[in-house]
Amino acid sequence: MKQINQLIKETKKYLTKYDYDKVIELCDKILAIDNTSYFGLRFKGIAYYQTGKYKVALEYYEKLYELSHDNDLILSMAFLNENIGNYNEALKFYEKFTNTDYTFSKIKRLLTKMKNYQLIIDEYNNKLYELNVLEKTPGNTKRKIVLLEEKGVFQYRNGEYNSAYESIKEASVLYNAIDYKNS
Q1: Please, are residues 29 and 8 in contact by the beta-carbon 8 Å criterion?
Q2: How many other CB atoms are found less than 10 A from the CB of residue 115?
Q3: SS3 content of the chain, % helix, strand, coil (to 5)
Q4: Local confidence band at 182 (pLDDT 50, 70, 90 cut-offs)
C-alpha cells in the first residue's frame, strides 16, 4: 500500500506537468500492483484522453464503470463515446445522468448530431406542459416563449414547417402579451 501511495503521489506530480507519457508509465506500475486501482485506471484513462486517444481512454473508463457509476464517470463515458462517434451509446450514458437542464443541453447537442429532432421536440412538449400546470407568472411566460421558440427551430429542422410556424406564432402572441412595466 505504501508503494501505491508513493506512485500516486508521483503520478499527480507528472499530471500537473502534463507529462502524460510518464503518467501512463506510473499508472502501469500502480495497475501491476492492483489491477482494480481506481486511481490507476482513472488517470491512465485521463492521460489517453488528453493525448487524443479516445478509444483507448474509453477502455479504461469502461473498467472504471464496472467499479463505480458516479455522475462524473457517467458524463465522461458519454463524452468519450460521443467523441468517437458512438452516439447511441453516448445517449444511453447521458440518460443515466441526473435529469437536469445541463443534461438536456448535452442530450440536445447529441441528438442534433444524430439529426433525431423528434426526441428534442418531445422534451420541449414536456417542459411546456409542466409550465402550463404551474401558476402563470411573467417569469413562466418568458420561459414558455423561449421554449416555444427553441421547439419551433427543431420542428423546422425536422421538416415540420407548419408546426414550427405555429410554435413561433404562439411565442410571438405571448411576447406581445407581457406587461414589461410590471414584470
Answers
A1: no
A2: 8
A3: 80, 0, 20
A4: low
Contact between 31 and 40 (Cβ < 8 Å)? yes
pTM across the whole model: 0.62
Rounded CA separation 49/126 (Å): 36
What's the number of CA atoms in the CB half-sphere (13 Å) around residue 19? Answer: 11
Is pLDDT above 80 for 26? yes
Residue 44: all three cell numbers together:
491512465
CA distance 31 to 152: 51
In angstroms, the CA 79 to CA 91 distance is 9
Statement: residue 136 has pLDDT above 70: no
